[in-house]
Fold this sequence. Notes:
CATH class of the largest domain: Alpha Beta
Distance between the termini: 12 Å
CATH superfamily of the largest domain: Response regulator
Number of helices: 8
Shape: elongated
CATH topology of the largest domain: Rossmann fold
Helix content: 40-55%
Strand content: 15-25%
Amino acid sequence: MKEKIFFVEDDESIYFLIEAALSAGGYEKKGFVEPLAMLEALKEEKPNLIVLDLMLPNMDGFEVLEKLKSDSMYSHIPVIILSAKSSEPDIVKGLDNGASDYITKPFGVLEFISRIRANLRKVDQVNQNVLIVRDLQLNLDKHSCLLCNVPIELTVKEYQVLKLLMENAGNVITRDRLLHDVWGFEQFAETRSLDVHIKTIRDKFAKVTPDVYIETVRGIGYIIPK
Length: 226
């Protein structure tokens, strides 16, 4: 699956240059002239990386960066600033406020793509400890869960069930495997315990969003669709 990149740029010539560079790099892309449109699009889909200009209509790029990094729904998305502002204070401000990288204009296309690849590699390393499916996040280091930016309190078994389903998002996990991996062979017959835990997870999620995250595959098991 192609990695998806959002970019925000209001200069037409640079917009098309970024678009062409990302296409040549093999990335799925979506461009925005106006930052509010990009922030609205984030509610529907999450890119792997954002390229952000600073001098934008209606909202300064630094303000956009602050909004992204202060919201745990989006704070994990790396942001590369691409700007004509080349002074050291601007670069330091961008990096200190959470940008993963800072590229000054004019820029070379090959270096631009190389920087994107490097930042995506860093994300891959970090995301090994954070499972993300749509608006659901499971932090494996902190044993914490966020749904639509809302903390979800899980018991140990609920966490283990959810972790197994999220690790295999898009694939059906059989009831037998869930019982084996979470409860062990000694309680293999306790199928009702699995049903109860699935129900309690669903009930907790339903208090936050009407979206269904855990689906039942009748006679087989459960799945979290991607």
